[in-house]
Amino acid sequence: MRDGVRLSADVFLPDRDGPFPTIVTRTPYESGRDAFLDVAAYWARRGFAFVVQDCRGRFESEGTFRAYADDPTDGYDTIEWVGGQGWCNGKIGTWGRSYGGLTQWLSAPLAHPQLTCMAPHVICDDFYSDCHYIGGAFQLMLSLGAAVIWQTNLATVVGPQSRHVFQNRRFWSHLPLIEMDELAIGRRVEYWREWLAHPTYGDYWRPFDIRGRHAEITVPAFQQCGWFDPYTGSGFRNLNGMQQHGPNSRAREQQRILVGPWSHEEPASTSMGGRDFGPGSLLDIRAEEHRWFDWQLKGIDDGIASEPPIRIFTMGANSWRSEAEWPLERSVVTPLFLHSTGRAGSSPDDGRLTLDPPGDEPVDRFHYDPADPVPTLGGVLSVHMMTAHAEEPLEAGAVDQRLLEKRDDVLVYTTPVLAEPVEVTGPVSVVLYAESNARDTDFTARLVDVAPDGTAFLVTEGILRARYRNGLKQTELLAPAVAEQMEIVLYPTSIVFAAGHRIRLDISSSNFPRFSRNLNTGEDVGTGTRMLVAANSVLHSQVTPSQLVLPVVDSTLRFC
Fold it and tell me: Which CATH number fits domain 332-553: 3.90.470.10, 3.30.70.100, 2.60.120.260, 1.10.10.10?
């Protein structure tokens, strides 16, 4: 590297004369793992050189690992080295999932002249609001899991035996959060403490934000995302950003994105969280990447050049289709208004969703106790192998929500039975009018597909920490018992709610341990230890019309 630090790279070459187009990936997860050896063999057998490198300070590479900080220049310098090797023909693509995706986006704005294309999968564009702080709520499981794994040579935090140390209720309930690095591995992790020391968006996070930098990125990207992975919104933002601001025609016109009914890992099953999406839901991701790299690095066009930029799987209909833009121009923004007689938290039939705005209705009240939070159960997760609050393996996806919906701190609102199928494809949000007696609290939202037998399949979800209701660059604590309008942004989705099904919205104030508990005191997220029970209320009236906002496509909401 430019500062003299030497990074370890494993190089795999085709068993023939070169030079070759080359694919590069950089990882903190050990270049010699079987997964990388399999990928390397796949590409070398197909005429590509493949380079997998340990990130700075990880495994065989020298230096000190600092999350994200050195990846821009280290990525550039690695491409510079690869491009100077006799076995490389000067056409270089990058590839990788998760951290292997962020290394690509972070170095891409430096625009190395030999970088030809990218394939960054399941990764965020903004490390603050799409990774560590979602709606201002600290993403505890992901952040601590990353901090532990990146400071050890064994990924013990996700192993089945880790329940003895990491994966148990006592561990996740520890306060203050700032000490959890030492609790886990016996030493401080500086970037863990930096993340907690910067709970609002600002100068610390800005260098890791790709939004606004698309004009500096000169090459096309193929992104793969999943409806149950938290970075699909980022994928679409990057797609639109490159199409609108890419500095050349290739960067603007050759972007591609693929979104399936998956989570963070490469798809290996037709089901996700107990819901089966049919045999057609599985794709050979490596074959899709092969088409991409053949086109970009070898000039082989099997029709990919003329395909639309977006390919998505619509759940419920269980079918693939292509689209030209995101969000879809033909989608109709449709509000479903919350109604009840004030018993949405105690009666399964009281909370309703309808197309009609509310009149004068009583509020729905519940108590949120940080000592007894709503546990994480399925959802849009990138760490689904972690262990949940109940000390059972946590699974991402459409897990049945009925167990949670029985709690009196979960408000449940449901439509009548659908008379016809309804497609919802695009961004989803909740406009919530709420109040609390606490200075700060969280509000969560989950969109649910209710089958005729009562099974409540999770579709997508979101969270908002109330102090960030007016933006993520500043905090504003609540005034007790004052109604506030808040927007909860849910992850995008594509689903057909079948005739005979019902659409449901669950509202609560916790999703633990995926997100840290709001202690309801307004104290600092990293150092706070004092907990209060919050009395929270959701309002739905003429002046406070709380609503679920859905992008309805090619259909109309009609109820039996």
Answer: 2.60.120.260
Architecture of the 9-126+209-323 domain: 3-Layer(aba) Sandwich (3.40)
Domain boundaries, the chain: 9-126+209-323, 131-197, 332-553
Selecting among 121, 264, 384, 501, the annotated active-site residue is: 264
Beta strand 310-314 with 256-260 is parallel
**Catalytic residue flag (residue 98):** yes
Q: Which is the catalytic residue, given 31, 71, 77, 98? A: 98
How far apart (Å, rounded) are the C-alpha atoms in residues 6 and 61?
6
Query: Tokens 């995706």 identify what position?
Result: 101
Q: How many CB atoms lie within 10 A of CB 493?
A: 25
Tokens of 195: 């993340």
**Burial of 542 (C-beta count, 10 Å sphere; 0-12/13-18/19+):** exposed
DSSP letter at 129? I
CB 227 within 8 A of CB 122: no
Q: Of the listed 74, 77, 229, 440, which one is catalytic?
A: 229
Q: Which residue matches tokens 């148990």?
A: 168
Q: Quick check: is 229 catalytic?
A: yes
Q: Which two tokens stand for residue 393?
A: 């393996």
Q: What is the mean pLDDT of residues 446-465?
A: 98
- Does position 157 have pLDDT exceeding 60, yes or no? no
The 3-class secondary structure across 359-399, one letter per residue, is: CCCCCEEEEECCCCCCECCCECCCCCCCECCCCCECCCECC
CB distance 388 to 375 below 8 Å = yes
State the Cα–Cα distance between residues 212 and 210, nearest whole angstrom: 6
What's the Cα-to-Cα distance from 232 to each of 11, 55, 150, 225, 258, rounded to whole Å? 31, 25, 24, 5, 10
Residue type, 158: V
Kindly report, residue by residue over 80-103, the tens digit of the pLDDT.
999 999 999 999 999 999 999 999
| Gyration radius (Cα) of the chain, Å | 24
Q: What is the pTM of this model?
A: 0.96
